[in-house]
Amino acid sequence: MNSIFNRTSVRNYLDKVVEDEKIEKILRAAMAAPSTGNQQPWEFIVVKNKATLEELALSSPYSKCAKDAPFAIIPCHRKNGLKYEMYLDMDMSAACENILLEAVELGLGAVWIGVAPLQDRVEEVARILNVSENLVPFAIIPCGYPANEVNHQDRFDKSRIHYIE
User: Fold this and answer.
1) Contact status, residue 156 vs residue 4, Cβ threshold 8 Å
2) CATH of domain 14-148
3) Residue 62 to residues 31, 66, 72, 146: CA-CA distances in angstroms?
4) From CA 140, how far away is CA 96, in angstroms rounded?
5) Quick one: which of 48, 130, 136, 62 has its CA closest to 92?
6) pLDDT exceeds 90 at position 150
7) Cα torsion 74, 27, 97, 148: sign
8) Which residues contact 138 (CB under 8 A, 6 or more apart)?
9) DSSP 126-156
């Protein structure tokens, strides 16, 4: 799985449309994530509209790169029908990681911009997207073809491994 080792946060994108087939593959990967009790709490909003991307870029101090992305995925979780609400963050994080890994696999770059658990950001992104009260934005993931060469770093640190034998 080279995508695990080649994944890095990409914030600069070429002005190039990403094919719908690639977007669907990314969303399929997101929905293949594990979830507690198989509750699959997620729904995904794909934003291609430039005006909306520009608004999302202003929703947090870290989301500026969204304005130049060809698209962004906003993973949201449902409020209703959940069996294991206390595990939402884990379920949603697994889906976000799958998005990032599939983007790499498809020759794209992406970055995970946190929205939850900061209530002001959750409310602002929900307002921008005009989502139903049943959906809670979790993250903004701008995505596109990387504008620059992607540099990877080896984060392996043997000193952080502890064995109990």
Assistant:
1) no
2) 3.40.109.10
3) 26, 9, 14, 18
4) 9
5) 136
6) no
7) negative
8) 74, 75, 76, 77, 92, 96, 115, 116
9) HHHHT--TTEEE-EEEEEE-BSSPPP-----
46/72 Cα distance (integer angstroms): 6
Task: Give me 88's structure tokens.
Answer: 């939402």
- Spatial separation of the C-alpha atoms in residues 29 and 71, rounded to whole Å: 17
Q: Which pTM was predicted?
A: 0.95
Any idea how long the chain is? 165
Residue type (1 letter), 151: N
All structural domains of the chain with their residue ranges? 14-148
d(CA 51, CA 158) in angstroms, rounded, equals 46
- At 108-148, the pLDDT tens digits run 999 999 999 999 999 999 999 999 999 999 999 999 999 99
State both tokens at 61: 């101090």
CB 92 within 8 A of CB 37: no
Distance CA 40, CA 27 (A): 13
Measured distance CA(138)–CA(89) in Å, rounded:
8
